[in-house]
Specification:
This protein is an alpha+beta fold. It contains 31 helices and 35 strands. A hairpin with a 3-residue loop joins strand 10 and strand 11. Helix 10 runs antiparallel to helix 11 and helix 26 packs parallel to helix 28. The two termini are about 65 Å apart. It binds one RNA strand through helix 11, helix 14, strand 19, helix 25 and helix 27.
RNA sequence: GCCGUGGUGGUGGAAUUGGUAGACACGCAGGACUUAAAAUCCUGUGACACUUAAAUGUCGUGCGGGUUCGAUUCCCGCCCGCGGUACCA
């Protein structure tokens, strides 16, 4: 009997659905294990071979844990709100829900084909009102909560209101002075108008309205993502883009910064991933210091207050609110020109380019320690979002300040003598203070403390912890997202809250929980309104009811989906307490490193927030994290000569002449081993029908190649469907794992897939010979056969735990080769080996399990136990080195003592030759490893 | 720019705590079976030098240094690819 993968896979796919093999309940008799996967966005193109990499790995892991006796939760769902479906809706008028449903269906088919063991009864979809009802519900909780710094946890806003009613703003951190600019008494509070009260509360709510800059493209009438902006122009159409302030929702994630940092210590994540989160949060200790201006003062944040005597000028961000006050009449024109230039640039560009740009405001501030007037400049390297948007510039001790001072001829005063620290860089907090009055002679560390004390004593500033992390923007001017469960109470001009950049006193009010979900309305057009509002503003019904017209961002639904899987159909709660107490949190999460500072921070914050309100049992949602790499595409490139318009075979293109050619993508379907099928290519596109091709001597037309993201537009997409049709799903799964370590990114190349295919057939042939005869016997295996078996299940088990799936495949190949060499077909060997293989190749394992005479599914069997007695070795073949170079080998008992080993080794022919018979200077013996003779 | 990550034969990769570099597989070459092909099986395969052969030697893990009896692995300095950089998901 042949290995007919298509029949086998079809058969078991059906069986698994019919028998609900992967359906899971909260079975308290077994230990729980939660294997979570990255939440996929269902794109219209379907899955390509890159997507399943992590899913195959997690599926193997989940199946392995199940065989090991765990009750495994392994769900899958869809993060289906997003731009692509909306873009398609704008182009074609198709409702995004329709596009999404189609894509989800296709994904599901592909998932099933690959043989994943997901419990589909727990699937979720963020665009389903039954799901986003709870996303809205959590948003309301955020809106109706504040962060109590004293208790260090989030709590209902009522607690804050009660405090205000009783004590006014006294004793609240952060202070009302800091948040709204003034303190107030209980009496004040009680006579404040409704909108005054709401305005104050807004500064404390965890979901709040504020103003922020966005990329505004007037020509497209829409707000753009940073990656839709290239060189200050819109990527689509090349229209000018500028920064524009708009009123929008934010999540006060900064209140959780310290706990997000602290929580990392308890997680089983890679240090790299933790570092990225730490750097993103960017906690730094320093001081806020006020510099006097002619009128008022300019506040800066600095981590190096010790350098204040070297502060020879100040720099403020181009968005700083004091600009209009600081700019003198003479400088006005120049400043306006500069700000216009800055507006055309994104934050990334502003930090990325090393260009030193800036402009003088014409005004001066006073250095509080030197008492000298220092000029105030505007420059783009100071970002408005960080600290106070203003810095004291110390050119002697900061590289960017130094470059700035050099370019604009500003004074530089040395303040730190680093001469006793050769090799110390400018950033190192090392050296002795000079030119710094009372700090002179102090070490930097001591000087920081001394100057902080002095700053606080003089009342010109105070110690402060600052975070690079900013509050998270939570509004999108898009259609395809969750509507906010918010209504405005109109105060003053009607609709003022709709004008994104207009001042508005309108009071946002949360809907009642009983009014959820607030269903996304149908609209006549998905196009933006042109004045910066979301397409929801096109719905007159919606606007008439004064609903918020912005929608939530993509990360809203994905910030809590892992909780919903525990209880996906619950319409009373987002998940029941009982079920959450059972599943707790994800034991392992397979997700890409690209989520390091986005999704993984938001989800942790949401979870901590729900934890504070007593709604979830664990304060961290993802105990262990695995970052799978990306599989990139390997595009085929053909070269067209710019002048002759002929396509030229790549082997004829001279290396230094590449720029004479235009590079075009050829569909990889027409390319085999880098050789183009010219006829197919001509047929493909009308305009290539009459193209001329210059081939090599052998008549072949060779393509170049490039590694880039797999995408439709690059014609380099390979789908799992194609691979499965050719080799089967078991082979596809194993090959994806065989490609290399899952954390690593690599281009897809199916060169080598035949190796895995051959393995599966070899494995099959241990059960059936060429003529279809059953080969498995009940004979007792030899020790040598047992050794192969136990060596393999030990190695495979360890490698799965370590997530080294690629070497598991090698181990199975080695075992098969070794058993074949012994002509071994014994049930006692093959049966346990088959169970070990089942997580990797679930279909063929199921088929052979049945053939072995079992009625149930192999995926509900028990993982074989390693019997160490077959693995004990008594001797070792020692490599013998002389001076670190391998010169001989010798087989010795493992329990032989060193002096005996030395005696035998020194007598070896080759050792004598390389030591010239000299006695060793040193004899290194590592038991069970190596021998090294040093002469 | 900043943060993170990776670089090993013709190719994908292995080497788990500093201990035989190249497991396993692809590709390639030669052979067996066959009328032939496919499939399957066997042998060889890092580079260079030397040799009839067996063997042997030198070099070799992006580049340049260092620590060590011993470095793909640890340290210092560089080069290149990839991911993130706050409205792609």
């Amino acid at each position: 009997m042949e290995y007919k993968f298509a029949e086998i896979e079809e058969k078991w796919k059906k069986y698994w659905v019919e028998k609900q093999v992967y359906k899971i309940t909260e079975d308290t008799s077994k230990p729980k294990y939660y294997v979570l996967d990255m939440f996929p966005y269902p794109s219209g193109a379907g899955l390509h071979v890159g997507h399943p990499l992590g899913y195959v790995a997690s599926d193997i892991y989940a199946r392995y844990k199940r065989l090991k006796g765990f009750n495994v939760l392994h769900p899958m769902g869809f993060d289906a709100f997003g731009l692509p479906a909306e873009q398609y809706a704008i182009e074609t008028g198709t409702h995004p829900a329709e596009t999404t449903a189609k894509a989800v269906k296709r994904y599901r088919e592909q998932f099933d084909k690959i043989g994943f063991s997901f419990d589909w009864s727990r699937s979720v979809n963020t665009t389903d009102p039954g799901y986003y009802k709870w996303t809205q519900w959590i948003f309301l909780k955020l809106f109706n909560s504040w962060y109590n710094r004293e208790k260090n946890k989030a709590e209902p806003i009522e607690a804050l209101i009660q405090h205000f009613e009783k004590n006014g703003s006294a004793g609240i951190a952060p202070s009302a002075l800091e948040r709204i600019g003034k303190e107030f008494s209980a009496n004040d509070w009680n006579v404040f108008s409704k909108s005054e009260k709401q305005n104050i509360l807004m500064h404390y709510r965890l979901a709040y309205l504020s103003y922020a800059e966005v990329n505004w493209c007037a020509a497209l009438g829409t707000v753009l993502a940073n990656d839709e902006v290239k060189d200050g122009k819109s990527e689509r159409g090349g229209h000018p883009v500028e920064r524009r302030k708009m009123r929008q929702w934010f999540l006060r994630i900064t209140e959780f910064s310290d706990r997000l940092l602290e929580g990392l210590e308890r997680l089983d994540w890679s240090e790299a991933m933790k570092d990225m989160q730490r750097n993103w949060i960017g906690r730094s200790e320093g001081a806020s210091v006020k510099f006097k201006l002619r009128e008022g003062e300019l506040e800066v944040f600095t981590t190096r207050p010790d350098t204040i005597f070297g502060a020879t000028f100040m720099v403020i961000a181009p968005e700083h609110e004091l600009i209009s006050q600081l700019v003198t009449t003479e400088q006005k024109a120049e400043v306006e020109k500069y700000i216009g230039y800055v507006k055309s640039r994104t934050d990334v560009e502003r930090q990325q380019e090393k260009k030193v740009t800036g402009v003088f405001t014409g005004s001066y501030a006073v250095n509080p320690f030197t008492g000298k007037d220092i000029p105030v400049w505007i420059a783009e390297y100071v970002l408005s979002g960080y600290g106070t948007g203003a810095i004291m510039a110390v050119p002697a001790d900061d590289e960017r300040d130094h470059k700035f001072a050099e370019k604009f001829g500003l004074p530089i005063i040395d303040i730190i003598d680093k001469s006793m620290y050769p090799g110390a860089t400018i950033e190192d907090k090392l050296g002795k203070m000079i030119n710094s009055d009372f700090l002179n002679g102090m070490e930097v560390k001591d000087a920081i403390k001394a100057v902080l004390d002095e700053i606080e004593k003089r009342g010109i500033g105070k110690r402060k912890v600052n975070y690079k992390q900013r509050d998270a923007g939570f509004s999108r001017q898009r259609y395809w997202g969750e509507p906010f469960p918010i209504k405005y109470e109109i105060i003053g001009k009607p609709d003022a809250h709709l004008k994104g950049d207009g001042e508005s006193d309108d009071i946002p009010t949360g809907l009642n929980e009983s009014d959820l979900p607030l269903i996304l309305p149908n609209v006549s057009t998905y196009k933006p309104t042109g004045d910066g509002q979301s397409p929801l503003a096109n719905s007159s019904d919606w606007v008439a009811q004064n609903y918020e017209t912005d929608t939530m961002p993509g990360y809203a639904g994905s910030s809590w989906y892992f909780l919903r899987y525990m209880d996906a159909d619950n319409d009373k709660e987002f998940a029941s307490k009982q079920k959450m107490d059972y599943w707790k949190n994800a034991d392992i999460y397979f997700g890409g490193a690209e989520h390091a500072v986005g999704h993984l921070l938001y989800a942790r914050m949401w979870n901590k927030f729900l934890f504070d309100l007593g709604l979830v049992p664990m304060d961290e949602p993802f105990q262990k994290l695995v970052n799978q790499g990306m599989i990139q595409g390997r595009s085929s490139i053909i070269y067209r000569h710019k002048e002759t318009n002929e396509f030229v075979s790549f082997n004829l293109v001279q290396q230094n002449e590449e720029d004479k050619y235009q590079k075009l993508h050829a569909n990889i379907a027409f390319v085999k081993d880098d050789i183009l099928d010219i006829d197919k290519f001509k047929e493909w596109r009308e305009d290539y029908r009459n193209a001329k091709f210059v081939t090599g001597k052998d008549g072949n037309f060779v393509c170049g190649h490039e590694v880039e993201k797999m995408s439709k537009s690059k014609y380099n997409v390979v789908t799992p469907d194609d691979v499965i049709a050719k080799y089967g799903a078991d082979c596809f799964r194993m090959f994806e794992m065989f490609l290399g370590p899952i954390e690593q990114s690599k281009p897809w190349d199916d060169k080598g897939i035949s190796g895995v295919y051959n393995f599966l057939r070899k494995f099959w042939r241990m059960f059936y010979d060429d003529k279809g005869n059953w080969r498995v016997t009940d004979e007792a295996p030899t020790d040598a056969e047992f050794k192969i078996l136990h060596k393999t299940i030990k190695k495979v088990g360890e490698d799965i735990e370590r997530l080294n799936f690629n070497t598991c495949i090698s181990s199975f190949m080695i075992a098969t080769n070794e058993l074949n060499a012994l002509n071994s077909n014994k049930r006692k060997i093959l049966e346990p080996l088959l169970i070990a293989l089942a997580p990797f190749a679930p279909f063929v394992a199921e088929e052979l399990w049945e053939k072995l005479g079992y009625a149930g599914s192999i995926h509900q069997a028990t993982y074989p136990k390693v019997e160490e007695k077959y693995l004990v070795e008594s001797t070792h073949e020692y490599p013998v080195s002389v001076n670190g170079k391998l010169r001989a080998q010798i087989q010795l008992p493992l329990d032989m003592p060193q002096d005996e080993v030395q005696k035998l080794v020194m007598e070896l022919e080759n050792v004598k030759k390389w030591t010239n018979g000299n006695a060793p200077k040193k004899f290194i013996f590592v038991k069970g490893k190596i021998v090294n003779v040093v002469v």
